[in-house]
Design a protein that fits this description.
The chain has 225 residues and is mainly alpha-helical. The two termini are 20 Å apart. The strands form two sheets. A two-stranded antiparallel ribbon has the order 1-2. Strand 1 and strand 2 form a beta hairpin. It has one domain.
């Protein structure tokens, strides 16, 4: 890990050792996929209700504009796929990115601006609560994502260094280590190290702990994503 992440933020990972995993390889992947489908299906009455409420709020505050935003992301094996989000920015946000490039707080091609002027009023709330990510449950049902894994990048695998490509060995996730430890303030190389730590230690128990820590992190509102 890098010096910018405090040891107390991730020392709980030391409990997980690759040699202690009881379910490995294909058995782990199949079990994890089954748990993803069961969890998303059983919670569907809840998240579908949120879908409808958020749909109405976006339509009321931005009549005529799309509710969803589809962004191409890099998934397992470097394959590109359309990741779904509730729209939190003005419709010409991508075009405005160059205009605000001088305000970027992260190393390019990452892009983050505190109090980004492109974000809508309802978008600020959705981002703060992470509710804008809910449509990615559809990506999980389609098999493009998992509940837990490295967050998919908007830039393609061609921009990765060789050591960074290890994160492409697994399905990207709705949440992961960097979201509960560093969140949006973490630089790409730091996130990569967290992703690799997850890949090397991954097991069902760790996946469940990350999910619970994500819920706590969201309620504590630990930074933006």
């Amino acid at each position: 890990m890098t010096a910018t992440l405090e040891a107390r933020d991730y020392n709980w990972l030391d409990r997980y050792h690759p040699e202690h995993r009881r379910i490995r390889g294909r058995a782990y992947r199949c079990t994890k996929r089954a748990l993803d489908l069961i969890a998303v299906t059983l919670t569907s009455p809840i998240w579908l209700l949120f879908f409808m409420v958020i749909w109405v709020l976006i339509k009321l505050t931005s009549p005529g504009d799309p509710v969803f935003f589809v962004q191409h992301r890099t998934g397992k094996g470097g394959r590109r796929f359309g990741m779904y989000k509730f729209r939190t920015m003005v419709t010409d946000a991508e075009e405005l990115k160059q205009q605000y490039a001088h305000l970027n707080e992260l190393q390019w091609p990452d892009f983050k601006i505190t109090d980004d002027p492109r974000i809508t009023k309802i978008g600020k709330f959705l981002r703060k609560t992470s509710l804008d990510e809910l449509p990615q449950l559809v990506n999980i049902l389609k098999g493009e994502m998992s509940l837990v894994g490295p967050r998919p990048t908007s830039f393609s695998a061609s921009t990765y260094s060789l050591w960074q490509t290890e994160r492409l060995d697994v399905l990207p996730g709705l949440t992961g280590l960097w979201q509960i430890i560093g969140r949006g303030s973490t630089e790409f190389d730091e996130r990569l190290r967290l992703d690799i730590a997850y890949i090397e230690k991954r097991c069902l128990t760790l996946d469940i702990e990350i999910l619970f820590r994500t819920i706590i992190s969201v309620f504590q509102q630990r930074g933006a994503h």
